[in-house]
Amino acid sequence: MDHILPALGGWTIPAAVAGCLWGIFGGALPGISPSIAMALLLPLTYGMEPATAIVLLASVYVGAEYGGSIPAILIRTPGTNSAAATTIDGYEMARQGKAGEALGISLVSGLIGGLFGLAVLVLATEPLAAVALAFTPMAYFSLAVLGLSVIASLSGGSLLKGVIAACLGLLVATIGTDPVSGVPRFTFGSPELLGGIRPILIMVGLFAVSEMLVQVGEPDWVKAEKRDTRLKLPSFGMMRRLSRAQVIGCGIGTLEGVTPGAGGTVAAFMAYNEAKRWSKTPDAFGKGSPEGVAAPESANNVVTATALVPLLSLGIPGSNSAAILLGGFLIHGLQPGPMLFEKAPEVVASLYWGLLLANIAMLLLGLVILTPCLWLVNRPKPYLIAAILALVLSGVFAIEQSFFDVGIVLAAGVAGYLLRLCGVPNLPLVLGVVLGFMVESNYRRSLLISGGDHMVFLQDTVSLILLAIAVVLTAWSLLREFGRKA
Amino acid sequence: MSRLRDIAFALGAMLVGAAWYHQASIIEDSLLSDAIGAGGVPKVLAAVMAGTGALLLLRTLLARPPQDGPGRGATPHVKAAGLLALMIGYALLAPLLGYPLAIALFAAAAATYAGARLGLVTAAFGAGVALVLWLGFVKLLGVTFPAGAVFGG
């Protein structure tokens, strides 16, 4: 009780609620990533109490990671990178008139993930920090390979097309400055390409723009009265059905969250893949499976808490969002790391309570705002297409204030349209873009360390374990895919 | 039709792979480079992509042509191309007209193109979308959008 009252006192509760609301708003806008939503508030925290400032920023992170799933489900536009996996079954459910149910599953699964991640953060920060420290460049490379191992089951029945799409994504990720030598590659003299292409631009183009290009030529969609017009929380029976997917999401989110650099996107895709593998109805995945929404949503919301493990315990920001939070600590003269728990225990306690409040606020705000969101997407199709594209064009420009980025999104949209025509799955491409930098930079760093000896990937214990898991999972997926065709 | 598309996709993959391999081969060496080099990984990926494209082409050519249903014709692609042209038009006109006017015109034009009736409702819709987005992005988030060369000076 001595810790609870001071931690919940002052502006902690308003900061958690306001931060979560701001985060949901930012996360739901394509182009405004959680880190951007947090960075926009950073200057406002100068005059705040340290605990209030940290709670505000962490709550934005929680809200934004959840907010990204709303447009992913309703308009096939992932608001954040980590919501990309949610589009697969979330949007499919929405097309079947079950958008309210999909949003309910996403909300509850996000809450479960967020609370589970918080419990892990509070109870297991010390041992999990050791996991983070055990990750060498070899282990990071193998972790990325493990992420790529889901390609076989994301290929939608055509492995060759999936491999080509993944290669294209990995190649797109090589555009920009070489991570080792600093030489520009595939930029054709364009300074805008020196920093590479942001994965969110490819995702928005592939998912949102291509969908609108398809929809404009399709007959009108199902009338509003046949579709969910209200948020529908999952029933007890549905919760039982989703529990396996949520447990998988929580487990994978914990591992990926504590690993600096891995992030919610990889966690969401891997959770989706494993939920499909262990599901009683794997064939329903990709066709509007509720488990296909629950697994990635649990995983990426676990990450909002577990990504703070390396930050709080070691002072290592494992993601852009954690780096902004680190900035928030430093502004107030606090240095995250082992001594933080000794020097400012009240700030750590406030952060824990703030995260709990942010998750509760996420649920309450979701209950309030999701039904109006459903009303919005049930408007007549011509207006909806125009509004979605106006939002996409504005959101993409907002990232860097660059029309060059708008051009990239339009090009990705055309590519997505053509890939759909040819029956090519776009998820392996997205995975390649997301993991490309991680694969190449850590592969080459590892070889620099070993003097060019590839055995280094097998000599590092963590790397060996991850590679073995990747081989087993790939073989399993391939056997299942070929077994289904036979 | 799906066979033709598979052949076109496989050929496209081979072409992109070959072009990427060529571009990777002409990347200048740096004194700071490692043994792999800046072009090493892209070359491997491009080769895998082209090789997989060749496999797909072979598989498609050897397989029995499937019985395709009736095609949907070119109309949906023409509609898609028109919508794309509107988006390109927005990107070109926004620096001139300014963000609020350009996005309002785009929203109204896109809605009309997608099937809404041109009239007061659609014009009000365009203005409303522009107002909401301007309030959200410019006023709330503080994003700087082009004021426009024509009206903004």
User: What percent of the residues of chain A sit in helical stretches (DSSP H or I)?
Assistant: over 70%
Relative strand content of chain B: under 5%
Level of helix content of chain B? Answer: 55-70%
Backbone CA Rg of chain A: 21 Å
Number of strands of chain A: 2
Any overview of this molecule?
The complex is a heterodimer of chains A (486) and B (153). With 486 residues, chain A is an all-alpha fold. Chain A is 73% helix and 1% strand. Chain A has one domain (4-485). Chain A has a two-stranded antiparallel ribbon. Chain B folds into two domains: 2-62; 75-140, no CATH class. Chain B has 153 residues and is mostly helical. Chain B has helices spanning 2-25, 40-62, 75-97, 99-114, 120-140. At the A-B interface, helix 10, helix 11, helix 19, helix 20 and helix 21 of A face helix 1, helix 2, helix 3, helix 4 and helix 5 of B.
Draw up the topology in text.
The complex is a heterodimer of chains A (486) and B (153).
Chain A lengths: L3 H5 L3 H17 L5 H8 L8 H18 L1 H7 L8 H12 L3 H35 L3 H12 L2 H4 L4 H15 L2 E2 L6 E2 L13 H17 L20 H23 L4 H16 L11 H17 L1 H7 L5 H12 L8 H4 L1 H33 L3 H20 L2 H19 L5 H24 L5 H4 L1 H25 L1
Antiparallel strand pairs in A: 1-2
Chain B lengths: L1 H24 L14 H23 L12 H23 L1 H16 L5 H21 L13
